[in-house]
Amino acid sequence: MDVPRVLDGGLSNQLAAAGHDLSDRLWSARLLRDDPSAIVAAHRAYYEAGADIATTASYQASFLGFGDDTPALLQLSVRLARQASYQADVDRRLFVAASVGPYGAVLADGSEYRGRYGLTVRELVDFHRPRIEILAAASPDFLALETIPDIDEAEALLAVIAGSGIPAWLSFSISGSSTRAGQPLASAFELVRDVPEILAVGINCCDPLDATAAVPLAAAASGKPVVVYPNSGEGWDAVARSWDGRRTFDPSVVRTWLRDGATLVGGCCQLGPEDIAAIAREARPT
């Protein structure tokens, strides 16, 4: 992409703000089955706030959670985002990215923030391939391979999309200067250097300060444009299942991201439509 594109914010916090209970293991993916209109409304809110790209509600959707209903619900996630793009009252081109979350997300036990599941790369390929193929068949504009905690899972995802011709971004969940599994970020970002399907590499679902420091490293190590969409800075209490602490995200940092090589910018957990509107103003100054 030769111009900055704005991603949406946290789908779960937008759904929660609308009064939906997301406390079960399926998280926001549950509403694919129970209340798809709520997902359309959330996507539309982000489009109208300034997002160019909506990420589908498929992050935590898998055969482990939905069984035989999985193919239909994965494809529905793309259709709902596309429907929202048609309904949104905006005059710019809008896009849909099909979310592919990590294996750990479907376990709903925090594994997505640790990685190192005890599975081989081949086993991770076998897990990811069916749902990526289903999502790809629904014709999204991009695949969002997101919140990936370690290099093994990244290798599996890159193996699945190799030769597909489907544009994708790969974003790691990080802590400081390492993946969540403790591997050097430079080694993680280097994986995509010769993968033509990857249009951007970067970071998401992490502290804003860590994300900002990682942007120039991602650009240098990968030779690719960078995608960056951190959390608000608050911390997740897995026992209480709630967010605490203070917000540290400042939308003015978007200018630094763009200067350092980012072309896809947005927000993740606890960043909502107002935040995306602020990000859009920084990315598309008038």
TrEMBL record:
Keyword field contains Zinc: yes
GO biological process: methionine biosynthetic process; methylation; S-methylmethionine cycle
Reported cofactor(s): Zn(2+)
Residues given in the record as Zn(2+) binding sites: C205, C268, C269
Annotated Hcy-binding domain residues: 1-283
Keywords: Metal-binding, Methyltransferase, Transferase, Zinc
UniProt xrefs under PROSITE patterns: HCY
Pfam families from the UniProt entry: S-methyl_trans
Gene3D superfamilies, sorted: Homocysteine-binding-like domain (3.20.20.330)
Enzyme Commission number, as recorded: 2.1.1.10
GO molecular function (one): metal ion binding
Keyword Metal-binding found: yes
NCBIfam families assigned to the protein according to its UniProt record, in alphabetical order: PRK09485.1
Protein name: Homocysteine S-methyltransferase
Species whose genome carries this gene: Kutzneria kofuensis
Upper lineage: Bacteria, Bacillati, Actinomycetota, Actinomycetes, Pseudonocardiales
